[in-house]
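Fig. S4 source data, part A: sequence.
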Amino acid sequence: MGGGEKTGENPTDRRKLGSKHHIVTDANGVPLAVTITASNVHDVKELLNVVDAIPDVSGKIGHPRKRPEELYGDRAYHSQPHAEELRRRGIKPRIAKRGAPHGSGLGIYRWVVERTASWLHSFRKLRLRTDRAAGIHEAFVALASSLICMWYL
């Protein structure tokens, strides 16, 4: 099982082929953007791609925000060049630094994304990667994300 496009050897699971979901949510856990990479791709390499995948907000009068004001992330997303790029885009990075002791206080915000990842993986089709074509897997991710959004309506 597994394999195909956007999969790679998982370094933590006996090198089985798998995918990784990178998620940006709002403060309530509603997914704004989800991207997929191979499980052996480092998280920080996907940071700017997932931020760029956030769709524009439409329907509001005036100048609606197209990007979040702040971005919270765990140590895997810490990189000074990426933090500078986020600032250039008008986003304040709130990412835990590597090597810093645990207890930074950011966990009170990051659990929202972890909960959304749990909701996303509650769909068995996404928890176990069985589709070889990345497009099919991306379609199921989009469907699951829209169902999570519907829960908030």
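Fig. S4 source data, part B ends here. Residues 8-56+66-151 form a domain with the Nucleotidyltransferase; domain 5 fold (CATH 3.30.420).
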